[in-house]
């Protein structure tokens, strides 16, 4: 029988801790859970293949948020991330990350992942952020996935590749009971009973539509279709600050990072068409993105990453990192365009919108133990709400989640779920395969994501949002009543569209709820153009209550690290001012 | 609603002379994050079956015989 042919089947397995998503946070969570209790069963479920899945599929060119003794302190880092996020931060989780991340770096080092060191053997940390110094290059960052995979094999983690989780199962009293999944090549369904579940399913990177003409030419790994956000939502977990979109400055068309983080410490900078700097700091924040957006639309666009003023040897060094590690096709792209960094600047633009706490601050709400609001359910990495996670945050918080989830599994027995929930989910998943005639998933996806671009992309206009939500509701009806999948691969895409649609609805709902502007471009509402600390200095939590999408306010936890009044708006001063 | 297919040039090119899928190798199919590669029933060689590429490169990097090339897709060249 050939691959992709649909097989009708349903089986059930059980484990102590189920980790969903084998990218960055997932492998670390699985490893830590298993090391905590080697006798327990830990299953790592992955939609693709753990060897090459997730945002670090090909590797990573550096740590963007390394808090290394001698260069930065946890207090300083916590302060910086708080200010960069307009104060809407529960500092406890950020502070805990900042305290733990150095030991994770040492651990990664022991796995054989190498970081840049200076001639004295110390980590060669670089400054990119507005205030502190946290960027540690990884010239051999292409080894990350292989090194992780070795650890997983050694610890005997049970890896299930090519299974896409679709919904979480809960008991009548609201505790996590497991997950339903489907094989992406046969459409056979697998129910996994688990005492604790950790969601590490990455960003919602396939939300907006890139302008290239390719639906999969996204900034994020296109496999990151927001499945984790959708699953958490349908399980009743709260999602925080989803209106704080992720929007990135990228290489135009290629849609990969221009990597000011890599090139900046060597002297490269973002410039307008006059070759002048216009932003103080290249660290990605909503405020910086707003200045970027303004410059693009002014007569001074396009915007470029400028390296040509640097020494040729320096450029060669930068080039070897940029063209080898994180997105190696970049070299091919620049070569095809005839762009030599020695003589020409790199044209940049703004990415499509997405959700990703890796760079912004939205996600499934978690506390400092990576616990969601559903007992026994955890989240880590780009989909969890700890802000500005990046790769090291995914590793560090994945580790926290793995240990805490195993403790939970040790003190709880399996929760019982209702068999009717599985039957209902099976009907939902398989529905597109039962239709003779209809609309293929790629067209529903294209339409949904075009609507996201047309109506939800900032600046956010209330009237546009209302229209967008109406159009999205029509597309949803088509998706639910008319979408077809003719083989297992199309069914995978059909399921992903449903995650994308849920994320689009959540993006719209959350954005309309917060009636102010905050986080620069990420949440710029033209009808409420000012920051309103009196009414909106709070998190927003979105959740499904009685089947309906609902938003509410949640107070920001008291700060662990106090921020002085004169420091609060440091990130608001991104634009370079003309000197008198 | 009747369906039609849509012509598209795909970025992943496999050199059939080097590809050893006919000897049982499935490395590129196994590692692809978007699961777009398949082994052809006709030639028993790997090929890009679905135009859903992120041009990320594991297929090229992990191919044991150097048979796979990832090109930049035409529209964003």
Automatic annotation (TrEMBL), chain B:
<dbReference type="InterPro" id="IPR017900">
    <property type="entry name" value="4Fe4S_Fe_S_CS"/>
</dbReference>
<dbReference type="GO" id="GO:0046872">
    <property type="term" value="F:metal ion binding"/>
</dbReference>
<dbReference type="Pfam" id="PF12838">
    <property type="entry name" value="Fer4_7"/>
</dbReference>
<protein>
    <submittedName>
        <fullName>4Fe-4S ferredoxin</fullName>
    </submittedName>
</protein>
<feature type="domain" description="4Fe-4S ferredoxin-type">
    <location>
        <begin position="44"/>
        <end position="73"/>
    </location>
</feature>
<keyword id="KW-0004">4Fe-4S</keyword>
<dbReference type="GO" id="GO:0005737">
    <property type="term" value="C:cytoplasm"/>
</dbReference>
<feature type="domain" description="4Fe-4S ferredoxin-type">
    <location>
        <begin position="10"/>
        <end position="42"/>
    </location>
</feature>
<dbReference type="GO" id="GO:0051539">
    <property type="term" value="F:4 iron, 4 sulfur cluster binding"/>
</dbReference>
<dbReference type="InterPro" id="IPR050157">
    <property type="entry name" value="PSI_iron-sulfur_center"/>
</dbReference>
<keyword id="KW-0411">Iron-sulfur</keyword>
<keyword id="KW-0479">Metal-binding</keyword>
<keyword id="KW-0408">Iron</keyword>
<dbReference type="InterPro" id="IPR017896">
    <property type="entry name" value="4Fe4S_Fe-S-bd"/>
</dbReference>
């Amino acid at each position: 029988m050939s691959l992709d042919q649909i097989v009708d089947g349903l089986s059930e397995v059980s484990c102590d801790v189920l980790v969903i998503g084998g990218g960055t946070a997932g492998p670390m969570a699985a490893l830590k859970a298993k090391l905590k209790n080697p006798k327990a069963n830990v299953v790592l479920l992955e939609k693709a293949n753990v060897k090459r899945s997730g945002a670090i599929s090909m590797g990573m060119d550096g740590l963007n948020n390394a808090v290394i003794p001698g260069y930065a302190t946890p207090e300083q880092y916590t302060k910086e991330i708080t200010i960069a996020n307009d104060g809407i931060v529960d500092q406890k989780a950020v502070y805990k990350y900042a305290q733990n991340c150095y030991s994770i770096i040492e651990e990664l080092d022991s796995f054989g992942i190498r970081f840049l060191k200076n001639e004295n053997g110390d980590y060669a940390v670089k400054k990119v952020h507005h205030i502190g110094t946290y960027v540690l290059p990884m010239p051999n960052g292409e080894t990350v996935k292989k090194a992780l995979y070795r650890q997983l094999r050694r610890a005997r983690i049970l890896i299930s590749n090519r299974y896409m989780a679709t919904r979480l199962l809960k008991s009548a009293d609201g505790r996590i009971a497991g997950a339903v999944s489907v094989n992406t090549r046969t459409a056979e369904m697998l129910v996994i009973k688990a005492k604790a579940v950790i969601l590490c399913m990455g960003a919602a990177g396939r939300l907006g539509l890139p302008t290239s003409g390719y639906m999969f030419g996204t900034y994020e790994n296109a496999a990151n279709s927001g499945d984790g956000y959708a699953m958490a939502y349908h399980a009743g977990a709260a999602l925080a600050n989803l209106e704080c979109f992720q929007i990135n400055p990228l290489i135009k068309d290629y849609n990969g990072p221009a990597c000011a983080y890599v090139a900046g410490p060597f002297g490269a900078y973002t410039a307008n068409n006059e070759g002048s700097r216009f932003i103080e700091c290249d660290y990605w924040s909503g405020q910086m993105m707003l200045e970027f957006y303004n410059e693009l639309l002014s007569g001074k666009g396009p915007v470029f990453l400028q390296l040509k003023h640097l020494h040729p040897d320096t450029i060669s060094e930068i080039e070897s990192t940029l063209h080898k590690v994180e997105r190696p096709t970049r070299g091919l792209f620049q070569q095809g365009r005839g762009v030599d960094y020695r003589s020409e600047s790199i044209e940049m633009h703004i990415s499509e919108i997405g959700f990703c706490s890796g760079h912004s601050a939205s996600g499934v709400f978690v506390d400092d133990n990576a616990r969601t609001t559903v007992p026994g359910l955890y989240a880590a990495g780009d989909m969890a709400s700890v802000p500005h996670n990046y790769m090291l945050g995914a590793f560090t918080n994945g580790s926290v989640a793995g240990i805490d989830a195993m403790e939970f599994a040790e003190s709880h027995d399996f929760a019982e779920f209702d068999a009717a929930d599985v039957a209902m989910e099976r009907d939902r998943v398989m529905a597109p395969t039962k239709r003779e005639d209809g609309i293929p998933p790629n067209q529903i996806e294209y339409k949904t994501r075009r609507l996201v671009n047309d109506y939800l992309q900032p600046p956010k206009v209330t009237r546009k949002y209302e229209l967008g939500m109406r159009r999205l509701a029509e597309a949803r009806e088509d998706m639910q009543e008319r979408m077809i999948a003719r083989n297992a691969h199309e069914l995978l895409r059909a399921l992903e569209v449903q995650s994308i649609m849920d994320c689009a609805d959540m993006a719209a709902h959350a954005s309309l709820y917060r009636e102010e502007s905050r986080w620069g471009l990420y949440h710029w509402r033209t009808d409420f153009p000012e920051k309103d600390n009196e009414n909106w200095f709070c998190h927003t939590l979105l959740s499904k209550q009685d089947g309906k999408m609902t938003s509410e306010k949640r107070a920001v936890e008291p700060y662990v690290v106090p921020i002085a009044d004169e420091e609060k708006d440091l990130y608001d001063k991104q634009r370079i001012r003309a000197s008198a | 609603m009747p369906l039609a297919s849509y012509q598209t040039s795909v970025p992943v090119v496999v050199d059939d002379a080097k590809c050893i899928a006919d000897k049982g190798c499935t490395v590129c199919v196994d590692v692809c994050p978007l699961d777009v590669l398949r082994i052809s029933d006709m030639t028993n060689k790997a090929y890009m079956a679905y135009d859903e590429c992120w041009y990320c490169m594991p297929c090229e990097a992990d191919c044991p015989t150097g048979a796979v090339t990832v090109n930049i897709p035409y529209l964003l060249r």
